[in-house]
Specification:
Layout: E1 3-4, E2 13-19, H1 24-40, E3 45-52, H2 59-66, E4 70-72, H3 75-82, H4 92-103, E5 110-113, H5 122-127, E6 129-134, E7 141-142, E8 145-146, H6 153-159, E9 164-165, E10 168-171, E11 181-184, E12 188-189, H7 200-232, E13 236-238, E14 244-246, E15 249-250, E16 255-256
Parallel strand pairs: 2-3, 2-5, 3-4, 5-6, 11-16
Antiparallel strand pairs: 1-13, 6-10, 7-8, 9-12, 10-11, 13-14, 14-15
Helix pairs in contact: 1-7, 6-7
C-alpha cells in the first residue's frame, strides 16, 4: 500500500522556504512555480512564506520581489543573547521551536531548505517534511555509510578521482545528509583547469569552487524545483517500509535523471 507524500486532491502543496544567504536556490523554486502557473494555469505548489536565520540575508529582497511574507529570526542574536557560541547545540532545539511557532500561521506542509546553513533539530524536522539539496550522489555507499556527505563533498569526490559529480535532493533527517533520497541529477563531468601558478592547496580550492558553481546550475537548480513539483503532483509516495516510490515504482536509491 502506497501513501502519497502529498495528495493534490487536498489542494496545492504549501511550502515554506528556509534560507540563510543569497537565496539563489529559492529563486529557482519561485521561477519554476511561475513557469508551472503559466503553462498549467495554476502551479501545484506555492511558496507561502520565507524564513531566514540571518537578518542580512537576501530574504527581504526576494520576499518583496515575489510578494511573499518574510520571517526573520537571527540565529547570531539568539546565541549572543544567551552568551553561547553558535556551535553549542544544547539550545538549538529552542531556536527551532521558536521558528516553528513563528511559521505556524502559514499552514505549510513542506519546508524547503534553500541554502539554509543551520543544522535542523527534531522540533523543526517533525513540524515539516523537509527537502534539501546536497552537492553529491548520496546513493553511493561505502562500508555501510554514505560516501559523499558533509560540506566538502565536491572536493572529496574530485580528490578521490571521480570523473562526474551529481546533486541529490533528500528528505531532511536528524542525521545530516542521511535522509531518504528523492532525485539525483544528471552527471556533470568534472573540469580540472591547469593552473601552474597556484599551490596545490589553492588549486584544489579553485577546482572545488569552480565545479561547485557549475553543479549548482546544472544540478541543484534543476532537481530542487522538480522535486517539489513531483511531490505536489502526488508522484512521490512511500510504502509501509518507508521505501520511496515515484509513479508507483520503487526508487530506493532515488530517481536518477539522465542527460
Amino acid at each position: 500500500m502506497l501513501r502519497k507524500l502529498h495528495d493534490p486532491a487536498k489542494g496545492r502543496l504549501r511550502v515554506v522556504a528556509l534560507m540563510s544567504g543569497s537565496g539563489t536556490n529559492l529563486q529557482k523554486v519561485l521561477e519554476h512555480q511561475q513557469a508551472l502557473a503559466a503553462s498549467r494555469g495554476e502551479a501545484p505548489y506555492e511558496v507561502v512564506a520565507i524564513f531566514s536565520d540571518r537578518s542580512d540575508s537576501n530574504a527581504a529582497d526576494i520576499g518583496k520581489q515575489y510578494d511573499i511574507p518574510v520571517v526573520t529570526h537571527d540565529i547570531r542574536g539568539f546565541y549572543e543573547k544567551r552568551g553561547l557560541p553558535r556551535k553549542d547545540m544544547s539550545v538549538r532545539a529552542d531556536f527551532d521551536r521558536q521558528t516553528v511557532d513563528m511559521l505556524k500561521p502559514f499552514n505549510a506542509n513542506v519546508a524547503v531548505y534553500a541554502g539554509y546553513m543551520s543544522i535542523a533539530t527534531p522540533p523543526l524536522i517533525k513540524a515539516y517534511m523537509g527537502i534539501n539539496v546536497h552537492p553529491a550522489d548520496l546513493s553511493v555507499v561505502e562500508n555501510g555509510k554514505r560516501k559523499w556527505t558533509g560540506d566538502y563533498a565536491v572536493r572529496d569526490a574530485i580528490v578521490a578521482g571521480e570523473k562526474y559529480i551529481y546533486s541529490t535532493t533528500h528528505m531532511v533527517s536528524p542525521e545530516v545528509d542521511a535522509g531518504r533520497i528523492f532525485m539525483i541529477s544528471a552527471p556533470l563531468e568534472v573540469e580540472v583547469p591547469e593552473n601552474p601558478d597556484f599551490s596545490i592547496q589553492k588549486v584544489r580550492r579553485e577546482i572545488r569552487l569552480h565545479n561547485q558553481d557549475r553543479l549548482k546550475e546544472a544540478g541543484d537548480w534543476v532537481i530542487m524545483p522538480r522535486t517539489i513539483e513531483y511531490i505536489a503532483d502526488g508522484r512521490f509516495a512511500e510504502d509501509e517500509n518507508g521505501v520511496m516510490h515515484v509513479d508507483g515504482e520503487p526508487i530506493p536509491g532515488g530517481l536518477r535523471l539522465s542527460l
